[in-house]
Amino acid sequence: MLMTIVAIYSLYVLISIYTSIMQIGFISKAKNRQAVLLNQEDFLKAGNYSIAKQKMSILSSFVDYLFFIAWIDFGISYLSENIYFENTALLNIAIVMGFVIINSVLSLPFAYYEKFVLDAKFGFNKSSIGLWIKDTIISFVLTILLGSLIVWGIYEIISNLTLWWVWSFAFIFGVIVLINMLYPAFRAMFFDKLTPLQDEALDSEIKSLMDKTGFVSSGVFVSDASKRDARLNAYFGGFGKAKRVVLFDTLIEKLSTRELLAVLGHELGHFAHGDIYKNIALLGAMLFAMFAIFGNLPQALYLELGFSQEPYIIMIFLMLFMPILGFILMPIMGMLSRHNEFAADKMGSELAGVGGEIELANALKKLVTENKSFPLSHPLYMFFHYTHPPVLERLKELGVDLGDTQKDSIQEKCKADI
Question: I need a surface site. Which of 48, 239, 377, 392 has the fewest CB within 10 A?
Fold first, then answer.
């Protein structure tokens, strides 16, 4: 049984690395061909950025695999043998949080490299080392405080209820919904500074869009995201009347008013179609499957690993194997998500008024340019990783004339070369 588990994790890592290698090969050929959507210089730069990200992903996958083997072989045993508390609840919390903290610390070199080497090289990073350290410390403290409460809750459920995996799923699912509700407030409290949108004309236009879809919000806010990153983004957070519309200041700076309204119309399309709740339901299904599997593992497996079936062992196993189930279900979730994106694009272009499809298309092109998103991808990588359709497909669906790229696509040329 142990060998089966290691084999499954090994297969997951190999497939993940293989898709990244295929993506690197695909982009390496495509980036030197005729540019699509971007000018030739930006097209090459976006290709180089994507390749660099994939190389880092391969290294990260390999290191994660080594960590997995280490945890299974001696890491969990080391924690359980060297952490002492008479109170069993505190003992379980300490061991699980020890696992979480060690993994977080081990991931810091990758986070630092991505921020201050890779992102800095391609012009994204705007953060200072001091601000990054401050953000990291705050994240650690919040992880320890909130994580400990969650672990305590699951410990109590496992210790006192027969169908513990059902109730643990319900508990974690409720926590996820609560975090989604509180996310904008937490982010504003500890990280970004949110200020009400000062542009009264734009604020009025946005509220008019929201009225058309029945979206009730506590306000439209601007995030000072540019102090950390140059990428463009926006998000809707919270539930009920606590929902907020948050625009990155970089987005306001780079998009025209009509382009911005088209992008927000797209997001409101997700709301109108219930996509937020569909995504939560999909996540709930994935969590339920995970808890069902680990709630019914045979005791022989734990004995083979040299462990008793303690709550902290179950929780650590859940965290170790959660990425595998996510990777398996990602193609299904990706296909549904890409379908939803097309529908949201259609509604976004309609909400933007006459010529809305052109405004949304222009906004998508600017997002690709500013975020250095390479517009082409290997089909296998797209199958496993893409939650959004490629921008070219979105533009075609909007009826935007792409000229030669629509008739003689580089995507098809590169596919034929591989």
Answer: 239
Total domains, the chain: 1
Phi, psi of 90 (to 5 degrees): -65, -35
CB 278 within 8 A of CB 163: no
Q: Tell me the C-alpha distance between 109 and 115, whole Å.
A: 10
376 SS3 class: coil
What are the pLDDT digits (tens) for 166-205? 999 999 999 988 887 777 677 767 777 888 888 888 888 8
138-149 per-residue burial string, b: 16 or more CB within 10 A, e: under 16: eeeeeeeeebbe
* 92's tokens: 């379980």
Judge contact between 55 and 113, C-beta under 8 A: no
Give the span between the Cα atoms of 264 and 284, in whole angstroms: 26
Sign of CA dihedral 123, 125, 129, 130: positive
Rounded Cα distance, 269 and 340, in Å: 9
pLDDT of residue 239: 62
AA letter at 298 = P
Q: ∠ CA(179), CA(184), CA(187), 5° rounding?
A: 95
Q: CB atoms < 10 A from the CB of 417, how many? A: 11
Q: Please state, in angstroms and rounded to a whole number, the distance separating the CA atoms of residues 311 and 74.
A: 18
How far apart CA 221 and CA 337 sit, in angstroms, is 26
Contact between 260 and 252 under an 8 Å Cβ cutoff? The reply is yes
pLDDT digits (tens, 9 = 90+) for 220-255: 888 888 888 888 888 776 666 667 788 888 888 888
E strand or H helix at 403, and its extent? none
φ/ψ region of 272 (left if φ > 0, alpha if ψ in -120 to 50, else beta) reads alpha
* Other CB atoms within 10 A of residue 176 CB: 14
**The two three-digit tokens of residue 267, written as one number:** 């997001």
CA distances from 279 to 85, 333, 336, 338, 366 (A): 40, 8, 9, 12, 27
Scan for tokens 């080594």, then name that residue.
66
**Two structure tokens written together for 405:** 């790229």
Q: Which domain holds residue 324?
A: 2-417
The pLDDT assigned to 232 comes to 82
- Please name the residue that has the structure tokens 């709930």: 284
3 state SS of 337: helix
